[in-house]
Design goal:
With about 240 residues, the chain is α/β, with parallel strands linked by helices. It is built from 9 helices and 11 strands. The strands form 2 sheets. The protein has a 7-stranded parallel beta sheet, with helices on both faces. Helix 2 links the parallel strand 2 (about 20-25) and strand 3 (about 50).
Length: about 240
């Protein structure tokens, strides 16, 4: 099976990474940078470049934001949790981000982007009632899904329990938390769990957490977008590590 990655940055990162690209589609007459760079990267990997009518891209685009470039790729391959846990075994510091039924693929991609920039080791999502990695996630992650493991588990709570067995502390993001991001123990081996856009953490996911952490709110809007919240929490973990150097 195949799907499409759309947008210049996303296609560039797919070609640079290990994404199995079978063809690059470029709107007829489109030249200049970064199109020439995309052509060069495709040539290096032996990927054919096909000129197509822009309406062909419009028809295949999910959000109409292809910027004249799309890449045909094999269906995204998720990374087994066991593989990530083996890779992080024995590390004093490691960050994983778990998403409790995030249904917006754009948010999923944005979280993956922030996680990759923060130096996280992976993002965990459940198989059911959750966005999967597709063209939108490739684009909103700016290609980060090409580099950061995304783990898709049949049971998120069991995945969290498995992480606990490997020395991770589970921190749930919640507006009802008694600890703020500045005071919570966000250091060492941490799994950050963020809930769905509307309902927040599910009851079972919240019960699996070792502690809850909240973001202080000074304005009239009572919460951040899930991807924005993930960024703040992830970079507080980054800051704690920098302070120890």
């Amino acid at each position: 099976m195949s799907s499409f990655v759309e947008g210049r940055n996303a296609v560039t990162e797919a070609l640079r990474g290990e994404v199995p690209v079978s063809a690059v589609l470029i709107a007829k007459g489109l030249e200049g940078e970064p199109i020439s760079r995309i052509r060069a990267l495709a040539a290096e990997r032996g990927v054919p470049v096909r000129p197509v009518a822009r309406r062909t891209l419009d028809e295949r685009s999910v959000r109409g934001a292809h910027q004249g470039v799309m890449a045909e790729v094999s269906t995204f391959e998720y990374t087994p949790l066991a593989e990530v846990l083996r890779a992080t075994e024995g590390r004093e510091r490691s960050l994983l981000i778990a998403l409790d039924h995030i249904t917006d693929e754009g948010n999923l991609g944005a979280v993956v982007r922030s996680a990759e920039v923060a130096g996280a080791d992976g993002v965990i999502i459940p198989k059911a009632r959750s966005a999967a990695v597709g063209a939108v996630a490739h684009k909103t992650s700016a290609g980060a899904v090409s580099y950061l493991p995304v783990i898709r588990e049949p049971n998120l709570v069991r995945a969290l329990e498995r992480c606990k067995e490997e020395g991770y502390w589970i921190a749930g993001a919640s507006g009802a938390a008694s600890q703020s991001v500045w005071d919570a123990p966000l250091d060492g081996r941490i799994v950050l769990v963020l809930g769905s856009e509307g309902a927040g953490l599910s009851r079972l996911a919240e019960r699996a957490c070792d502690f809850l952490v909240g973001l202080p709110v000074a304005g009239r809007v009572d919460s951040l977008n899930v991807a924005q919240a993930a960024t703040v929490l992830a970079f507080e973990w980054v800051r704690r590590g920098a302070d120890r150097r």
